[in-house]
Amino acid sequence: LGYRACVSAYHLRPARSGDAAAIAVIWQDGWRDGHLGRVPEALVAARTPRSFRTRAARRISAAVVATTAPGGTVAGFVMVVGDEVEQVYVAADHRGSGVAGLLLAEAERLVAAGGHRQAWLAVVPGNTRARRFYERRGWSDAGLFDYQAAGTAGPVSVPCHRYIKPV
Ligand SMILES: CC(C)(COP(=O)(O)OP(=O)(O)OC[C@H]1O[C@@H](n2cnc3c(N)ncnc32)[C@H](O)[C@@H]1OP(=O)(O)O)[C@@H](O)C(=O)NCCC(=O)NCCS
To answer: Does the Cβ of 67 fall within 6 Å of ligand 1?
Structure first.
């Protein structure tokens, strides 16, 4: 009595089409938290609510979601494309809970399962919360480069740090 076991209640599973709306909301809110004031205006203009809904629906097969319990609500998601951990997003009220670590570990596992020895991701310099999160999990900063982010009229060049980790 008087204590609770520290066992994660989160559940990981591949995303399904019915998750697209929840993913779009977490993606849009998290994108703003991580990127506003830190990326070119052309990218902010391209990241409309509709753009997140469209991309979430299109990319659903690349996504793994964490839910609050089997059958529960979506707390966060990752998207893996080849050796790139393309998206890592946790809903604001689930940050600091450890669920982000579960999702990132699953993304690393998927990169390795795809036959790659090293995973990479792009993060904007000002996103210090995300950078600390990656660094604490064994990722290292391989330096600045220009990430070609999907925009409305072709790619938008965004200065980012490339983070890498052997998997
Ligand atoms: C990035 C993200 C997935 C990390 O998940 P999280 O649950 O927030 O991560 P944690 O709380 O475990 O770790 C965050 C680290 O930043 C620190 N931190 C917390 N708030 C911070 C802030 N405002 N500024 C800087 N660092 C901060 C935490 O203390 C922790 O570091 P520590 O372990 O050394 O103390 C989550 O914050 C998120 O979804 N952010 C918005 C979307 C985003 O930016 N995604 C990444 C795009 S590349």
So the answer is: no
